[in-house]
Amino acid sequence: MKYDIILCGVGGQGGISVSVVIAQAAMAQGLQVKQSEVHGMAQRGGEVLAHLRISDSPIASSLIPKGSAQLILAFEPLEALRYLPWLAKTGQVVTATAPIKNIPNYPDLEAVLGEIRALPKATMLDADAMAREAGNARAANMVLVGAAAKLLPLKVESIEKAIADTFARKGEAVVAANLKAFEHGRTANQ
Amino acid sequence: MGIETLMGDEAIALGAIHAGLSAAFAYPGTPSTEIMEYYQDYVSRRGGIVAQWCSNEKTAYESALGASYAGRRTTVSMKHVGLNVAADPFINSALVKIKGGLVVIVADDPGMHSSQDEQDSRWVAEFARVPCFEPADQQEAYDMTRAAFELSERVSSPVLLRITTRLAHSRAAVKLAEPKGQNPVSKVEDSKSWLLMPAVASRLWKGLVGKYEALRAESEAAALIEPGSKELGVITTGVALLYYRENLPDMKDRPSHLHIGRYPLPYAKIREFASGVKKVVVLEDGYPFVERMLRGVASAAGSAGSTGPAIVGKESGEVPVTGELDPDNIRPALGLPPREGQACRDLVIPGRPPQLCQGCPHGDSLAFLKEALEDYPLHTVNSDIGCYTLGALPPYEAVETVVEMGASLGMARGAAEAGLTPAVGVIGDSTFFHSGIPNLVDAVSHNTNVKIMIVDNGTTAMTGAQPTIMSSEKLKAIALAVGVPPEHVHVVRAHRADHAANVEMMRRELAYEGVSVVIAFRECLEYLKKARKA
Predict the structure, then answer these.
(1) Chain A environment of B351 (Cβ under 8 Å)
(2) Are B150 and B73 in contact (CB under 8 A)?
(3) CATH 3.40.50.970 given to domain B3-221
């Protein structure tokens, strides 16, 4: 079993913590993991990208080859499209729909969403609104993890435990809100 | 000892700690920053190790050299261009008789994710005749760091540990080994072996040349040939090994393979390997270092009429000569077709470059500078390495140049002396402490008509908000201490609300002929966020 995930968004959207949560859940299930992250200058409002590879056998490259990712998990719709060349023909996109228009030439949003709708397998959700409903506007990334849960080669309980562990330092309220956000995401894409 | 999931930077840091590290020194620089951050996090919980940010890579290197002289194991870590700053101590420390293990960790940035060039530190190690280790993955990063200390003490030489961005910032499981205790403090017995006066140094230099050839024999033993096809041989170094392995299942005949993880280059092994195959593909992240050596000049291997194998790599064009290697861009050299993914129907995806954060103090500083300069159609604004470099892009378009750490002030001063005024040097607080001060001294001593603007956000922001080496008040104190007239040293708040007053002040200083220092202060928003989290 090999499962490659592209995580993408705009600097500051919390992509790295999602990568950590999924990786921890995978390792708790005895799977091997390699993760590649972007640090430094790109984190300042630019496009950010993490590669996450999960396998039950040794993984060579920490970078995912083109056409190999089973999932693009995107925090922003334009960013979801940027990495399509890495998505396998059978791969899926799960993306938030709220755009971050911090560039002057951001394309027409309907055109962006139209491209996503035209993909063979794509799930779009208003993760920001769902996170607010769950009681923490900053938990949109966990809504997306929830929406991707049924696709991941992971047990729901492993992911929930990884969320609890990752946010434990920030207190029970934050853990609860992130778990709720995860739950909302799961319900939205069952 | 267990298994931990670590980034390459972290694996190196933990490897050093487990090798009995006593003292570590560094200046922040992507992609090397997390090494010192890991040490400092470790020290905050466990103590027992000195782990300090320094003013710059040169001072950091010199501190590490002193720690080695005191018999303790030490590291100095930096990004590739930091090694330029530390080139003087690095190259000369190859001559002295290293006592406590000295491991020089240098993170190269092919692809220039966060850098102004993609120079390859293997060439610098070769130039200095310092042995170099190049790990392929996180496990090797941990193991090689430990081995580097052993080698350093055994052969009395610094060892350069060269990594690239991808290894620095990717995570994998690492199997840990038994930690070793620290060395006791013990002074070098033969202090003449550290006295690089010409008479002594010439003896040491002869010794170094011989030592480097002895090290080559060790590289020979470490390089492994995996026999395979006689048609095709592949040489890999560093992370290229992983990209090669990723593609191996797609290859019909398994190539012969030579992996190199240690330098000086194992010449004999390479000759043996190259003579057994018809074609050699060289895969290495960075400059074509192995490939250039392999091609040589006199033998002209791979050229028309040559009896050697055909050589395929960056210099022949099959592997991209710029940028970072990845699992896809090495496929043409291996004779493999491109992999196909999905694509947009017709939308062209615009790039999303990094930019200053919403409400960043640098934006307000650049805004008042730009408005004050509107009175001068001919002017220059030279800038420096840091977030404020982004002030060159729209909507600011307020700075013109960025070359290397400290160049803002030197360039503005030189431009002013050459007649291009007003000349403004825009430099961050951390960069000013790194290498701005000598340029300020030059400006004052020659009374150059140059305007120095220190955009002070109280932190080293670009690399993730590490503390600046000294507090903000010291900036004004330094300007006064070197003799900038007090009425031309200003500390202002970098905030929209103060815009009009700041423009007014800046106009007055632009009209003044002499050295002015304007310190525009407001704390970095990322730094405040990080402080709140802590």
Answers:
(1) 47, 103
(2) no
(3) yes
> Would the CB atoms of A39 and B34 count as touching at under 8 Å?
yes
Look at A118 and B345 and tell me if their CB atoms are within 8 Å.
yes
Choose the CATH number for B361-533 among 3.30.930.10, 3.40.30.10, 3.40.50.970, 3.40.50.720. Answer: 3.40.50.970
Residue of A35, A79, A87 lying closest to B341 (CB–CB): A87
pTM of structure: 0.96
In the predicted structure, residue B465 carries a pLDDT above the cut 90? no
Q: Is the ipTM of this complex over 0.90?
A: yes
Please provide the CATH number assigned to the domain covering B223-334. 3.40.50.920
pLDDT at B298: 60
Contact state of A34 with B171 under an 8 Å Cβ cutoff: yes
Nearest Cα neighbor of A151 from A93, A89, A96 is A93
Q: Can you read off the two tokens belonging to residue B37?
A: 């951050």
b/e string for B181-216 if b means 16 or more Cβ within 10 A? ebbeeeebeeeebbeeeeeeeeebeeebeebbeebb
Q: A97, A69 in Cβ contact below 8 A?
A: no
Q: How far is B533 from chain A (nearest CA, A)?
A: 9
Tell me the shortest Cα–Cα distance from A65 to chain B, in angstroms.
5
Are A115 and B347 inside 8 Å of each other by CB?
A: yes
Tell me what the mean pLDDT of segment B65-77 comes to: 98
pLDDT band with cut points at 50, 70 and 90 for residue A38: confident
User: Would you kindly state where each structural domain of chain B is located, as residue ranges?
Assistant: 3-221, 223-334, 361-533
B107 touches chain A (CB under 8 A): no
